Amino acid sequence: MDGNGRWAAARGLPRIAGHKAGVDSVRAIVRAAGELGIETLTLYSFSTENWLRPAEEVGELMKLLSWALNKETLDLDKNNVRLSAIGRLEALPAAVRRELDGAILRLEDNTGLHLVLALNYGGRQEILDAANKALAAGAGSLDEEAISENLYTAGLPELDLMIRTSGEMRISNFLLWQAAYAELFVTPVLWPDFRKEHLVAALEDFSRRERRFGGLSRKS
Asked: What DSSP string describes 136-202?
């Protein structure tokens, strides 16, 4: 979900205003995904690298995350959304953890869209954590199965489509293992402007692709 800062700068606003506008996009896209029958939606919300931003901005982001979790949980419940989170969650501020754990618990029995928030997440860190977890459990050697079973995303469906907003042509350390055969869709639209019509455009593009898996191919 990239482009919040640029969205704010273009309007002469502080960066946090772009992040707040981005919450509106999250709300709109979560609803749209549910309406479109998407089973799982993962949002890259805060990366391990984001801690390197100015302390004031990080603090505001954490406050915004805590506020959004508190404010949006009721609406998520009404829309039958289930919630989970991936990443090094133990490093999040206590207030964020309380709101996050409370929201996950409240929504755990819902059967609609599964919304996954990537928080304090990094793809390289996830692979390292998976390898160390497998070794700590007694694995004598590592293979793909051992890594996959210990990823944060273990139990989630395979990644089909990765959407990158704001025109950035890189994965930025997101779901590196899972993206091996995923389709990529890059849009110049900044995240605060991203709405249902843009999600539909990405899905329509995805549906026309012929996917290849190590030489084998099939339609999306």
From this structure: HTT-SS--HHHHHHTSTTTTSPPP-EEEE-TT--S-TTSSTTGGGG-EEEE----GGG--HHHHHHH
